Amino acid sequence: MEKKWWHGKTAYQIYPKSFYDSNGDGIGDLPGIIEKLDYLQELGIEILWISPVYVSPCADQGYDIADYYGIDPKFGTMEDMDRLLEETKKRGIAVLMDLVVNHCSDEHEWFRKALEDPDGEYGKYFYIEDMKDGALPTNWSGYFGGDVWEPIPGTDKCYLHVFHKKQPDLNWENPKVREEIYNMVNWWLDKGLAGFRVDAIVNIKKPLPFTSYPADRDDGRSSMDQVLKHASGIGEFLGELRDRTFASHDAFTIGEVFNVSDDEMADYIGENGYFSSMFDFRQTLEGKSILGWLDSRIPSPDDYKRCCFESQAQGEACGYLANIIENHDEPRGVSHYLPKHAQHETGKKLLATMYFMQKGLPFIYQGQELGMENKGDWTIEEIDDCSTHGEYQRCLEAGCSEERALEIVSHYSRDNARTPFQWDDSAQAGFTNGTPWLVVNETYKKINAAEQVTRADSVLSYYKKMIALRKNPQYAETIVYGKTEPIMTEEHDIMAYFRRGEGRDLFVIGNFDCISRTVEVSEMTAKAKVLLNNCEDFELSEGMLTLKPHQALVVAL
Ligand code: GLC
Ligand code: CA
Question: C or N terminus of the chain, fewer CB within 10 Å?
C-alpha cells in the first residue's frame, strides 16, 4: 500500500457552534477555534475537520448552505477563516472543511431564482416536478421524516429535498450545477485547505425517472436507503468530481459514505479512488433501523467487536478507513457502546483503546477526549435538532406516550453530541459568557478540560498518550500499517486483536465485563512491554492473563 502523509496522523472534528464562543453571543465561532488551537496541538492533533461555517440559516445547523463562498457572520468573517488557516499551518495542522453539495439552502440565490421561474435556468439546478392532481411524484420518505417533496406555493409543482425542506437537492444531472460545484471546490482548495469531509454524498445520484418504490413502513412510504439502491451510475459523478477538483490539488478527502459493498471499496478508496478515505460506519449503523429510532436497538460490546473486525477485514483488502466512536450526528460513544456498568473513566479509556488501536485514521469528535456523555435527560423543548423532532413525531404516531417517545429520542438525539464543549467548571462550562444556543450538559462540573489537563490519570491524559504512541517511531509502523488479526472472537465481552507489523507485533485486549476475566495468551510472555494500561497493574502468569473489570492493555510483544 502506498504511504500517504495523512496515514499516521490523528484527526479531530470540530462542531463550531458548540466548541468555543469568543464574543458572548452563545454561539461558538472561528475566533473561538483559533483561541483553542494550542489545546488541540497539545493533544497531538494534526488534521482538523470543521463542520460547516458557511452562510446558513441553520435549519440543519449549517448543513443548509446559502452561500458557499461566505462565512456566516455568527461564525466570524473570511478574515477569521484566513487567520485560522495561517494559525493551523504554524502548528502543523491540516484543515478540512465540510463539503455539502447534495443540497443547498432554500435561501441560496440559486433556489430563490428557481422559485421565481421554475421552468427557467435555475429551476434546472434542482429537481422540480409537476404534481399530478395534487399527488406527489414519489412515495419516498425523507431522512428527517415525512415526504421528500415540498409543494411550491402558487404552482402545481414541488421540489425534492431528501433532508429538511429547507435543503433542496441539487440536480447533479445538470452539467452547469456540477461546474458551479467544481469551481467552488477549487476556489477553497486554492485558498489552502487540505481537503474536505464530503457530506451525504451517496445521495447525489437519484434513480430516474422518479417513481415510487414498495413501501417499507406503515405510512406507505419507502425509505431513502431503499430508494438509493435503485440508482446506478454515481461513480461517473464522483470520478468527475475527483478529476476536476481533488486530484490536481492532491486534496485529502473523506467521504460520508454508507453501505459500500466489498466490490465497490476499491472504486471509493482504492488507488485513485473517489476519496482518500471514508468513515467506517459499521458500528454506527449496528442496531439502527431504517424505520427510525423507535425500532433501533443499542449494540452490545460483542456487536461492537464483530462490527469492528468485519470492517478491519474490509479495510485490509483495500484502502485506509477512518475510525470513529461518535460524531455530530450520533449519541456520545461512551453512552452508546459501553454498558451502564462501564460508563466511568476506566470504561471510557477501554472503549478509546479498542477503537484507537485499530488500523485506520482515528477521528476524535470534540469532547470525546474528555469522555463527554449524552445529556440524556432532555425535555422536548430543549432539543434543537430537526431530526430528533421528526423521530419524536414518529414515536408518537406509532402510539408511544410522550414520556416513552422522549426516552427513546433522548438516547439517539444528535443534540447529545452538540451540547457545548465542557472547558471548565464555571458557568456554562466556560463555553460562553452569554446564554449558550443549546443547553450545557450538567456533567460539566465533573467532566471538563481544565480539571483533566491537570490530572495524569484523566481520560484526556489517556488520549494524549494514545496519540503520542501512534507517533512513536518505535511503534508507529505497526500501529499505522500493521494488519489487524482478531483473536478470541467468541470470548463474550472480551475484545482482543494483534497488530502484525514489520518486525514488531502489538497485542490489544479489553475486558467489557464487570468482573475480572482470565484468558490464555500464549504469545504474551514476561518480556512483553506494556505500552498502555487503563488500570494500575495487570496479572500474567504462565500464559494466563487476568484482566480487571473494564481493563484495557496495549502490549508490545
Ligand atoms: C450529513 C451530516 C448531517 C446532516 C446531513 C444533511 O449526514 O453529517 O449533520 O444533517 O448530512 O446535510
Ligand atoms: Ca460567538
Answer: N
